[in-house]
């Protein structure tokens, strides 16, 4: 008969076997795993109280704790970030699998050559944006792993939680977790500039202090990579500037116009074959876009992306159109995720807008 420890270990090993990103455990319910963005029940009975006794013990949580962050490992050494909690008087937990298998940059459907060019810069700011679960961390992990294999850098990461473990190759790593190794993103970023970094990865820009410190780090000769929640490349700039008080936004946009290397925005969509498909919008920040950002003409950035050289920019309309024409996603799915469904429909029917016809 399986003990609670055996059951817990089998659940942890299942996350690795099925390539799940997260495990969701609730007392009295069947355990669930998140796989390719979808919740899937494991073929196990409802979880009993004894399993949570075991999990609380492994995480060194006080028996009466209400919320508790910790870590644990599977039998095969797979690490998990654990959030213990209570809901409706019962215990629960969410376990995030910390990955060591970092995908190769060219395997993700990304503009790999452009990302490599960005990652080769000595200083500046690279933003990877999108909704929660859109693959931002994977894109940045793959970019950082390219650096690890090709450049002699000291790379400092500040994450909440740590999602990928890096093994030093040509580069060396300092990986810090918010709440365990540093108090906050802003504090970790501020301290990192005293740690002799070449590259700083900020898991998420959430507030004005973190945004200002990221721009300062880029100004002082560091390459900064960060994520931001936004729905498009233009929205990314809008979101960043609204983090600042109104009287500081003009100066922030001027600094951003000079320090921004590029923005890549992502969407993960259900694919026709049952998996997930990646749609991207991106641009390299150069002459015209610098002037638009500095002049707070953020609404015009989308038009710039549509008109700019296709080697350095791409909008979601083109990305979604190509996915539909290749049979990777359905037209219905593309229209659900398009900011302007009418424009996408015209493009799918071969009717180009004036901005698209000037695109080289």
3D structure, described in words:
Helices cover 37% and strands 25% of the residues. It is an alpha/beta fold. It folds into 2 domains: 4-98, Beta-Lactamase (2-Layer Sandwich); 105-357, P-loop containing nucleotide triphosphate hydrolases (Rossmann fold, 3-Layer(aba) Sandwich). Helix 8 (249-259) runs antiparallel to helix 9.
Low-confidence stretches: 354-358
Share in helix? 25-40%
CATH superfamily of the largest domain: P-loop containing nucleotide triphosphate hydrolases
- What string gives the helices and strands in order? HEEEHEEEHEHEEHEHEHHEEHHEHHHH
Radius of gyration: 22 Å
Beta-strand residue fraction? 15-25%
Largest beta sheet: what is the strand line-up? 9-8-10-11-7-12-13-14
CATH architectural category of the largest domain: 3-Layer(aba) Sandwich
> What's the level 1 CATH class of the largest domain?
Alpha Beta
Number of structurally distinct domains? 2
Question: What would a concise description of this structure say?
Answer:
The chain is α/β, with parallel strands linked by helices and 360 residues long. It has two domains: 4-98, Beta-Lactamase (2-Layer Sandwich), CATH 3.30.450.90; 105-357, P-loop containing nucleotide triphosphate hydrolases (Rossmann fold, 3-Layer(aba) Sandwich), CATH 3.40.50. It contains 14 helices and 14 strands.
